[in-house]
Structure formats: structure tokens, C-alpha cells
TrEMBL record:
UniProt cross-references to Gene3D superfamilies, sorted A to Z: 3.30.230.80, 3.40.50.11260, Heat shock protein 90, C-terminal domain, Histidine kinase-like ATPase, C-terminal domain
Stated name of the protein: Chaperone protein HtpG
Keywords on record: ATP-binding, Chaperone, Cytoplasm, Nucleotide-binding, Stress response
Source organism of this protein record: Parolsenella catena
Coiled coil location: none
Similarity remark: Belongs to the heat shock protein 90 family.
Function according to Swiss-Prot or TrEMBL: Molecular chaperone. Has ATPase activity.
């Protein structure tokens, strides 16, 4: 017996037991080796006239034998001489394919695609096999050679027989292992089952460039006997037929002859969706890093998209061989809904070919993918608004969370993809559309956050904004206000220019009247919750009147604050309310809606509270009642009124009174 040409049996043990995380990978590795052997023979035939080859005859055969407990992977490629067997299989981590690829680099491409790199894939066979026998005959030789090993100490090489050039890798599978003490067993015999082998071939090697064939069992109806009775029932029989299991040419590498229906069928089959994708994105990159990408934006959100069990990522292939089913690094979290495939011969893989060694290449691909997806979404938004609104209904929450989770760093990329309901326009609008429709002089984007549009539209602060000519975005997603807090401002492009004085404005208007283009400017707009205490739509006259009223009724406000205690930070008069008697607003960064969202979370007991302010409408008849109670010295009535107004304002905000029973009792008392 010949010893392996490494220090170590330890290294061999590492190859077999530690490199690969998944035992079923062995079939991918052996099929890739077989594909390389066939590519080598094809390339040799181009320069050696003695090799007569029909490229269409190249194929890989997978043959299970349950009785002998063997699995054979055969090719009709270049084969190996005795010296090559010694060099390639006797020396661990020596890659004949890598040497061949380096020597013939100018031929690597559409006609030749050498997959092997590390020289360890063959040894993955010992993860499932107790013995491996290799029968090979090199092209141009008359003698075959047999390499055999149990993967422990060494191997033997002897002369053998094979009808033509190529290689048979014959695995004698290990015995099944029963599970013990709750641990799972290992059923190696599953690699002899037809359905399992077909699934593995389709999963990992579906796009290997040569046909992978296997005898498969099928069923057919027997001919009806001539003397069959009238109640004859058809009989069926099983038969076997040689079938090509893999597709060979991936759809993402077909140039120009693929229709949308073909992409739709591939998407539904590969990603198990019933609906056609909303958008298909395909592109090919060349240069320092070559790759193909086929991406899909789904027509609907998967049921588990926002669950912790959802896994994002694109299928990553290298030289048409599946490396990772879901490569998460290819997508940012806010585009986690995108599905698809990336195939590159240039990515640097680790020795198991299950992950990447360098993030630089992956980062470059991910950046290009992100830009392509963003560009496609922008085109959908501008060219097919109905489709985009449907998309946003499904996936908009993730875009908003992308801004929030990045602390606003991704706002420049994502802000213009967001949609919100306009209280004035009664439709979904972008922030850019909101900004262009603002009246002159408006310096902020106003929004209201809550659980329903209907309730938000009826809020006094929203009606006040609309009455003063300002539109309000009605935000009903729990992440909306957190997103706006992370953004802080929105950079609006191409707004009508504002002028510091009347003379400059009049000069600009005259220039436009004379035929000049109106001047525009980019402007940073604050994002303001209309329920914030510092938002005021009132005119200077209204503000002055409110200040005078507040000063004249200081004693009333102090008495109401005393009655309400720490429920509010202060009671004041509002210049913005029109028909509502009172409203609850907030001071500081935490709004009432944010308080509600945090209170519904897992740490509700420790959730912070908003600093509430009770604003009164001095023009409402209720204010006169409050003044009358104060002037009469009826503290009990004033306390009752203050509590009722506060609880009523909470209900308008969609929040329950602190004591619903007391609120009901006070209403009945007044009745």
C-alpha cells in the first residue's frame, strides 16, 4: 500500500470530516470533477488530431446499485495515467484541474469551464463512503488504472480494464447509523435512492455544462389485451429509461432569446411562488470581476417576510455550480425581499466552496445589485404607479425600517422610494411630490402618526393644518415615526426659489414674465409631527391673540394643571385649533404615537412616556365654561371639566383614558 504524500493522516481526516458542513456536497464535488475531465478532453481534441471527439457525446452518468451498496459517477472525459493518479489522488490538496486551468487560461470561457480549484473535492467522497475505487483510462492510452482507498492510511494503484477513456468513481457507502440518546442518526443509503439523487443533482449541479444522466424508473400503461372484458381496468408496468437530469444552460446566461414568460416560469419554479414576479432584472458585468445576475421583485410578500425565521439572500453560483443557496451578503436588509441568482467564475471561494474568502468581491457585486434594484424601483414608481403602490404595500415597511435601522444614513438612497397617504390629495404621494405641492413659505413636511387614516383625518391638529393650507401625511405603520425621527430632514430638489426680500422676489417674477425660466433651489425640510407642541400654523395676529389670552388666564391654566397633576407638563392656549375644544400634544422627541408603539412592545413596563401638553381652544364655547368655573371658585367643577377635556383629547388621539370607569362616571354626572 502506498502512503498519502502529506505529513498527515490528520490532514486527510480534516478533508473528510471538517471542511464540509453538509455531507450531500460530495455529489456536487464528484460531478464537478467529471465535468472538468470532459472539458479537458474537449480542449485536447482541438489541438490533437488523434483525438476524435463529438462534443455532444460527452456526458456524466450516475448509477446507484442498492444490492452492492455502491454509487458510481462515470464520465467519458480525459481520464488519468498512472502518474496522474499518483499526483492527483495520492497528494492531498493537489489540483490537476487548477493546473490545467492555469495552463489553458486563454480557453476558459463559453466552451470550456474548469470548475476545480483546491484538489480536495474528491476526498469529500469519504464522508459517505467506506471505500472509494477509481477506474480510469487516459485518452490515447490502451491500459486502464485502478486507484483504491479506504481513506485511512493510504491507497493502491493497479492496472485494470475500461473500454474507452474516462473515469468511474465507485463509492461503497457506509452502513446506516441509528440515532442514540436523542441524537440523529445518519442514513447513507439515501444516496442510493433515485429521488434523492435527482434532487441533489438539480439543487447543486443543475447547470453543469454537460448532461448528467441516470436510469430512472417510470410507469406506463400496458397494451390492452384483445380479449379484454368490457370492465377491463388499465394495467401499468414500471420500466427504466436513461434520463438527463440537469438543465445544463442556465437561463441567466442565455443572451437575447429569453422571453418574460420564461423568466416567470423559472422564478415560480425556483422560488416556489404561485404568482409572476412584479419585476425581472437581469444584467451581465465584465471587467475586473465578471458575473451574471438575475433578480426578481416578487408580486407579493412571503408570509414570513417580517418574522425572525425569514432568511434573505441570493443563490450564489460559481462556474454554474451552486455555492450558497442564500448568500445574505449580496443584499442589504431593506431589499431582503429580492430573490434571484448571481453566477461568477471570479469569486474567491474557501476550500469547501461553501463560502467566500474575500468580502471585497462580494461587496462590489452587492453594491451593483443594490443600485440596480434601486433604479428599477424608481422606474416602476415613475412609469407604473399602480404597480409601484402595490409593491410598496407589500414591501414598503422594509424600506422605512432600512432608514431607521441605519440611523438615517440610508435616507438619501431610500427616502424618495417611500409613499405616504396625503390628507389633502387623498392618495399616496412621495416626499418629493409633497414638497412640490407645498404653499410658498412652508418650511417643513408635516405628518400625523396613528393606527388609521380615518381617525387621523379627524384629529384637531390635522384639521388645523389643512385649514391653514398645509398638507399632512397620514402615517399608519408602526415604524413611520421612528423613520422620520431617524431622517430628521428631507432634502427636496428643484423647489421654487424663496427670496429674502420683496425686491428680489419682484425682480424674479418680472424675469419670468419676460420669458426666463423660474428659479429653483434645493431645500432641507424639517419633518414635523403636527401633534408636536412647537408646531404652529397660526398667523401672527392669531398668535398674538393667543398670547394675550394665555396671559389673562394664567390662574385658570395653573388650576387645571394642578387638577391634572403629572398627567400633563402644562396646560396652555392654542392658536392653531379651529373647531375642537382641546387637543393633546407633546413636547420633546417622544410623540404620543411613539409612546403607544413602545408600550405595545416587550418592554412595555419600562417604556418612556411622552411629555403631554393639553392645548385649549380659546374660541370654543367650552373655554367660556372653564373660565366661569374658575371665576366662581368652583374647584370641584373645574377639576371635573379638566379631567373630561383631557380624557376626551386622549380618545381623539386613539388612546384610552387612564381611568375609563371614572371617565364614564363623570360623563353621566354631567348628564
Amino acid at each position: 500500500m502506498r502512503k498519502f504524500k502529506t505529513e498527515s493522516k490528520k490532514l486527510l481526516d480534516l478533508m473528510i470530516n471538517s471542511i464540509y458542513t453538509n455531507k450531500e456536497i460530495f455529489l456536487r464535488e464528484l460531478i464537478s470533477n467529471a465535468s472538468d475531465a470532459e472539458d479537458k478532453l474537449y480542449l485536447k481534441s482541438l489541438t490533437d488530431s488523434s483525438i476524435k471527439l463529438d462534443e455532444d457525446s460527452l456526458s456524466i452518468r450516475v448509477t446507484p446499485d442498492k444490492d452492492a451498496r455502491t454509487l458510481t459517477i462515470s464520465d467519458n472525459g480525459t481520464g488519468m495515467t498512472a502518474d496522474e493518479l499518483e499526483a492527483n489522488l495520492g497528494t492531498i490538496a493537489h489540483s490537476g484541474s487548477e493546473e490545467f486551468k492555469t495552463a489553458n487560461a486563454e480557453h476558459q470561457g463559453d466552451d470550456v469551464d474548469i470548475i476545480g480549484q483546491f484538489g480536495v473535492g474528491f476526498y469529500s467522497a469519504f464522508m459517505v463512503a467506506s471505500k472509494v475505487r477509481v477506474v480510469t483510462r487516459a485518452a490515447g492510452e490502451d491500459v486502464a488504472h485502478v486507484w483504491e482507498s479506504d481513506g485511512l492510511e493510504g491507497y493502491t494503484i493497479e492496472d485494470g480494464e475500461r473500454d474507452h477513456c474516462g473515469t468511474d468513481v465507485i463509492l461503497t457507502l457506509k452502513e446506516d447509523v441509528e440515532g442514540t440518546d436523542g441524537a440523529e442518526g445518519e442514513r447513507y443509503s439515501r444516496y442510493l435512492e433515485e429521488w434523492e439523487l435527482k434532487n441533489l443533482i438539480k439543487q447543486y449541479s443543475n447547470y453543469v455544462r454537460h448532461p448528467i444522466q441516470m436510469m430512472v424508473t417510470k410507469s406506463r400503461q400496458k397494451p390492452k389485451p384483445e380479449d379484454a372484458p368490457e370492465d377491463y381496468k388499465p394495467e401499468y408496468e414500471d420500466y427504466t429509461e436513461l434520463e438527463t437530469i440537469n438543465s445544463m444552460t442556465p437561463i441567466w446566461k442565455k443572451r437575447g432569446d429569453v422571453e418574460q414568460k420564461d423568466y416567470d416560469e423559472f422564478y415560480k419554479s425556483a422560488f416556489h411562488d404561485w404568482e409572476d414576479p412584479a419585476r425581472t432584472i437581469t444584467f451581465h458585468a465584465e471587467g475586473a470581476l465578471e458575473y451574471d445576475a438575475l433578480l426578481f421583485i416578487p408580486g407579493k410578500a412571503p408570509f414570513d417576510l417580517y418574522s425572525k425565521d425569514y432568511e434573505k439572500g441570493l443563490a450564489l453560483y460559481s462556474s454554474n455550480v451552486l455555492i450558497m443557496d442564500k448568500c445574505a451578503d449580496l443584499l442589504p436588509d431593506y431589499y431582503n425581499f429580492v430573490r434571484g441568482v448571481v453566477d461568477s467564475p471570479d469569486v474567491t471561494l474557501n476550500i469547501s466552496r461553501e463560502t467566500l474568502q474575500q468580502n471585497r468581491q462580494l461587496h462590489a457585486i452587492a453594491n451593483r445589485i443594490e443600485k440596480k434594484v434601486t433604479s428599477e424601483l424608481q422606474a416602476m414608481r415613475d412609469q407604473d404607479r399602480d404597480a409601484y403602490e402595490k409593491f410598496f404595500e407589500n414591501f414598503g415597511r422594509g424600506l422605512k425600517f432600512g432608514i431607521y435601522s441605519s440611523y438615517g444614513m440610508k435616507a438619501s438612497e431610500l427616502a424618495d422610494l417611500l409613499l405616504f397617504w396625503s390628507a389633502r390629495e387623498k392618495k399616496m404621494v412621495t416626499l418629493a411630490e409633497y414638497a412640490k405641492a407645498m404653499p410658498a413659505g412652508q418650511k417643513a413636511v408635516y405628518y400625523a402618526a396613528g393606527d388609521s387614516r380615518d381617525r387621523l383625518e379627524k384629529m384637531p391638529v390635522v384639521r388645523a393644518a389643512l385649514d391653514h393650507g398645509c398638507d399632512v401625511l397620514l402615517c399608519t405603520a408602526d415604524v413611520d415615526e421612528f423613520t422620520f425621527q431617524a431622517m430628521r430632514t428631507y432634502e427636496a430638489k428643484g423647489l421654487p426659489k424663496t427670496y429674502e426680500d420683496d425686491a428680489a422676489r419682484e425682480a424674479a417674477e418680472k424675469a419670468v414674465a419676460d420669458g426666463a425660466e423660474p428659479e429653483v433651489e434645493d431645500r432641507s425640510l424639517e419633518l414635523k409631527n403636527v401633534a408636536a407642541g412647537d408646531v404652529d400654523f397660526a398667523t401672527e395676529d392669531e398668535k398674538k391673540a393667543a398670547e394675550e389670552t394665555a396671559k389673562a388666564n394664567e390662574d385658570l391654566f395653573d388650576a387645571m394643571k394642578e387638577a391634572l397633576g403629572d398627567k400633563v407638563t402644562k396646560v396652555t392656549v392654542s392658536a392653531r385649533l379651529t373647531d375642537a375644544p382641546a387637543a393633546i400634544t407633546s413636547e420633546g422627541p417622544l410623540s404620543l404615537e411613539m409612546e403607544k408603539v413602545l408600550a405595545a412592545g416587550p418592554d412595555a413596563g419600562e417604556a418612556p412616556k411622552a411629555q403631554r401638553v393639553l392645548e385649549l381652544n380659546a374660541k370654543h364655547p367650552v373655554f367660556d365654561k372653564l373660565k366661569a368655573a374658575q371665576e366662581s371658585g368652583d374647584k370641584e367643577k373645574l377639576s371635573l371639566y379638566a379631567g373630561l377635556l383631557y380624557d376626551q383629547a386622549l380618545l381623539v388621539e386613539g388612546m384610552l383614558p387612564d381611568d375609563p370607569v371614572a371617565f364614564a362616571s363623570h360623563v353621566c354626572e354631567l348628564m
